[in-house]
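User: Sequence recovery, please. Input:
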């Protein structure tokens, strides 16, 4: 199971860390006004009609599979319409991610076998 722990907030973004087996594998960023509720979700890869490539799709709990919540590359909350962005580095002051394409590739490969994502808040 992947575990997303939200741990930093800006006016427009929620930043977090993505864990696998207790090890932080990358960072996350969500648009603060469109973030998914905390809970446990299904996650599986499928071809994104918007991005035209295989990406993890998050659904279940309070998100319908048809809503299209994806994990993908991006740098700021402006790059997210409710999706979870991933990156290898982050800046909690500006609310941004770096090396997001690398993180997207890694997370997509992991989600070929991992089927669950738990989203939680720190504290």
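Assistant: Recovered sequence (123 residues):
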């Amino acid at each position: 199971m992947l575990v997303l722990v939200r741990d930093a907030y800006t006016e427009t973004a929620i930043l977090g860390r993505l864990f696998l087996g207790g090890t932080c594998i990358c960072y996350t960023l969500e648009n603060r006004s469109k973030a998914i509720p905390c809970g446990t979700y299904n996650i599986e890869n499928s071809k994104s009609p918007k991005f035209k490539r295989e990406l993890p799709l998050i659904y279940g709990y309070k998100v319908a599979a048809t809503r299209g919540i994806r994990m993908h590359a991006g740098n700021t909350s402006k790059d997210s319409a409710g999706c979870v962005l991933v990156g290898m580095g982050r800046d909690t002051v500006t609310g941004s991610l770096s090396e997001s394409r690398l993180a997207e590739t890694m997370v997509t490969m992991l989600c070929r076998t991992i089927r669950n994502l738990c989203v939680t808040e720190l504290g």
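The longest helix spans residues 100-110.
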